[in-house]
Amino acid sequence: MDTMRERFTTVVSRLLDEDPRVAVVLAEIGADGFSGAARRHPDRVVNVGIREQLLVGAGAGLALTGLRPVLHTFASFLVERPFEQVKLDLGHQDAGAVLVSAAASFDWPAGGYTHMAPGDVALLDTLDGWTVQVPGHPDEAETLLRHAVAAGDDKVYVRLSLQANRDALPVDGERFRTVREGGSGVVLAVGPMLDHVLAATEGLDVTILYATTVRPFDAAALRRATRTAGTDVVLVEPYLAGTSTAAANDALADVPHRVLGLGVGRRELRRYGTIEEHVAAHGLDARSLRERIGAFLTP
Amino acid sequence: MTITEERGRTYAYEDLPRLMGLMTGDEKHGPAATSTLDVLWVLYDRVLRVRPEQSDDPARDRFLLSKGHGPMAYYAVLAAKGFVPVDWLPGFGSYDSPLGHHPDRVLVPGAEIGSGSLGHGLPIGVGTALGLRAQGLDDPRVWVLIGDAELDEGSNHEAIAFAGPAGLERLHTVVVDNSSASHARPGGIAARFEAAGWSAVTVDGRDHEALYAAFTAPHPGRPHVVVAQVEPKSF
């Protein structure tokens, strides 16, 4: 199985062939994968060099001429470094783009904190009108990327990761999916967190929702789930803990409810090692999740 | 006064002070506003191929005002050329006015970008030039107006360094130099563009004929910058 990022290269290279509106902008990272596509479409595959502010600004300019730009680099350089460009060159200009990140929260733990971006989705949450896709499997990534490119002039963020679930689920680019139904609580697993959540909740009488489209937040699905499972809600997100807590609270504003937001801790870990070690250090492995979810849902 | 009636009227350069005088409330940016007046007039009067009824025409020239603070001269020129009604000008900066102290492309007819935060126009201009090229639109030219102090922003350096080697021939920049940068580059503004492979001309920013000649100078295979020197900003 290829990685989500390899799938991105394959799928978007194909979209470049199929759709004359599609343009790809890169800042060195990922450029090798697009070398074939760049030969076929030299004007629509642009590598601006190591210039992330230009990456986003140029993407906005492409959009203003009517193209559909796809911008790609690591999350820390795509969302965090040029954040004002994301806010002004896209949002304020009323221009759209598909931002596709890699490396996620800690895909390269040995690379250290400079290449980690657990706060990317929370940061985008300060802006209006972004769709955020967090696939949990390369097949889902392909579907969501196709949705994102086809989404007119929308502003879409697709967050790719090396963390992935074993099996893909059907995703529609909009709604949460009910994976399992129970009567004592709702656990919402986002993208690559699903396998850990399923393992952690084995034998628990809970409803499991699976989210790959996290913004807009499918409030209706959460409300529906709480009607049979009750209004104790646990969110398990592969990025900063609590990123979607406000969205869940808003969804349940008119009923008494409790929300526990689990995810990557805010404190810098200052450890290298492996993805698995970082998952465990943030309490997102199945055993830690079982303890924390169990303690929260047990009256 | 209706838009039609205004468009029926021809405004000249001599009308601009009166039009600018209709706008009040942003006097702190007065020097920034007047520094761009002649550059804007020559561009809109003689160089840019864009008219109000062409605002969605893919083949129009694009003018991106990156130096968005002190936009009174810009609004005056847009009004003189019929992009916005003259009777919008007195409302400048008020709640119900589309004309803010920084322009918003969503609100101002003819404005290609919203600006105010420095260092955004040139990167967007690079993308605009790339987008036109990718669609085979070979005629339209892209112009970006920035200030000399704005040039300090690193994002501009990213754009300058890319556009030269990329040969973005249709990209043009005019730097209005009123000596407002705190740490000016030794050797001048043109030198930094030339080092990146741009064609560069430095002229008197008040001399309409010199500006016109600089704006229309051929620059095959290279982006082109015009440094328009005006009197230093007084503090």
Describe it.
The complex is a heterodimer of chains A (299) and B (235). Helix content of chain A is 37%, strand content 21%. In chain A, helix 7 (138-150) links the parallel strand 5 and strand 6. With 299 residues, chain A is of the alpha/beta class. Chain B is of the alpha/beta class. Chain B has a 5-stranded parallel β-sheet with strand order 1-2-3-5-4, with helices on both faces. In chain B, strand 4 (199-204), helix 9 (208-215) and strand 5 (224-229) form a beta-alpha-beta unit. The longest helix of chain B is centred in the middle third of the chain and has 14 residues, at 121-134. Chain B is globular and about 45 Å long. The N and C termini of chain B lie far apart (38 Å). The model of chain B is unreliable at 1-5 (pLDDT under 50). The chains are: A alpha/beta (299), B alpha/beta (235). Chain A binds chain B through residues 20, 23, 25, 43-44, 46, 48-49, 51, 53-54, 56-67, 69, 84-85, 88-89, 92-94, and chain B through 58, 104-106, 112-114, 117, 119-120, 122-135, 137, 154-155, 158-159, 161-162.
Topology readout:
The complex is a heterodimer of chains A (299) and B (235).
Chain A: H1 4-18, E1 22-26, H2 35-40, E2 45-47, H3 52-64, E3 68-74, H4 75-80, H5 83-92, E4 97-102, H6 120-124, E5 130-133, H7 138-150, E6 155-159, E7 177-180, E8 186-190, H8 194-200, E9 207-211, E10 213-215, H9 219-229, E11 232-240, H10 245-251, E12 258-264, H11 275-281, H12 286-297
Chain B: H1 3-8, H2 16-21, H3 30-35, H4 37-47, E1 62-65, H5 72-80, H6 121-134, E2 142-147, H7 154-163, E3 171-177, H8 189-195, E4 199-204, H9 208-215, E5 224-229
Parallel strand pairs in B: 1-2, 2-3, 3-5, 4-5
Helix pairs in contact in B: 4-5, 4-9, 6-7
